[in-house]
Amino acid sequence: MKTKFLKINPADNVAVAIEPLKAGDSLLIDDVVIKVIEDVPSGHKVALKNFLQGENVIKYGYPIGHVITDKAKGSWINENHLKTNLSGLLEYTYNPKSVTLDIPERGLTFKGYRRKNGDVGIRNEIWIIPTVGCVNGIANQLADKMRKETDCKGIDAIVAFPHNYGCSQLGDDHENTKKILRDMVLHPNAGGVLVVGLGCENNQPDVFRQFVGEVDESRVKYLVAQKCDDEIAEGMKLLRDIYKEARRDQRTDVPLSELRVGLKCGGSDGFSGITANPLLGVFSDFLIAQGGTSVLTEVPEMFGAETILMNRCADQSLFQQTVSLINDFKSYFLSHGEPVGENPSPGNKAGGISTLEEKALGCTQKCGKSLVRGVMSYGNRLSVKGLSLLSAPGNDLVASTALASCGCHMVLFTTGRGTPFGTFVPTMKVSTNSTLAKTKPTWIDFNAGVIVEDEPIDKVLERFIDYVIGVASGELVNNEKKDYREIAIFKNGVTL
Predict the structure, then answer these.
(1) Strands of the 5-6 sheet, one edge to the other
(2) Fold of 5-83
(3) pLDDT at residue number 340
């Protein structure tokens, strides 16, 4: 039976409205009757005590900020009443926590593509990747002509990935562009890649080719437009050669230990930390127990919950890397004159998230309870199994692109407000509430909202495991069905 409210942690001094609460409603919490004194929207917080100005509000067992005015028991607590406790750079102490996950290995498999280098993909697509934005039109035209010529028979998709960069960039921005594009060329979801360059750009095709390194030259080919009389005709010749190779690939049984998933949230609401994010957390722990890999990013949305992650680092070195991950991103904010605690968007606030700490404590639940085994800089590729942390901002497309680029086969994306986008790997939308799943069935792939209704999380987990395996084996998610596939590259510096 669906409950009307939820106190998440015994230490909490607020509860979450699962359904809209009306003034006059009575809530029985810890054998105490709380009378609601004003209407509280679903997903929002109701005070379980009388708060004095400056007192901390506790949710998920941790402070999520302090009230800026007195608030009475039974009142609605939202962003107008709360202020973050976050400030600038902090010093941290390593207090390692022991982690024991009693999750059996089940010998599960999915149907994937085993590549020549031993890596595994879950899609067999042909990608056209520009080295520079100047040739976006050529890349798009080549993809369109190849799709019409082949009807994608024998492969999963033919996709161009235009972007704005590759020239007029300096320093880290230029290196970030090179890294993301290199990671795409090497990604195992691509059965073949045509890299399209112009010839005079900063991201020189010959230099980029060396940067990418050794590849299967029957699957990865390069076109430099300024060196061709007819770049479309030459590009089509190269694509036909790639297509002949890629269409031969067949799915085979692959252990679930080979699967790598990215963990992301966007358009969050008050249910994110109660339904969809905890679901991804128990799935992440399950996948890691099978020998698989998950990656958590959105560093600004770790602020306020970072010590939870730091204390789960497997060793002191990883702890120090995580401290740098957090403080480097805080320094990035501060260097631009921006505060570190003002992240929640209008949609987040409307959904019941009032401070960045509140968002972070819900957000970090996506990675479960496993030990942190790796910490990666932006644009770097996975080198260890288990749980890794990745440096990237909270922006949905930038972060999802970064997750895919590090080697994730798919991105598991929780949302309470809904979003249609997808990056260059399957981007699975998991709704935090059933209303969204019902109203946006062409956006939402899996509904976690039932967790606060009538289905225990362990039962939902089993359905989710089956669904993820189905997607890894070729079942399309909505962004693929709609052909919503894009990339975005992180930019920090000047443009020439």
Answers:
(1) 5-6, 14-17, 45-47, 76-77
(2) 2.30.130
(3) 85
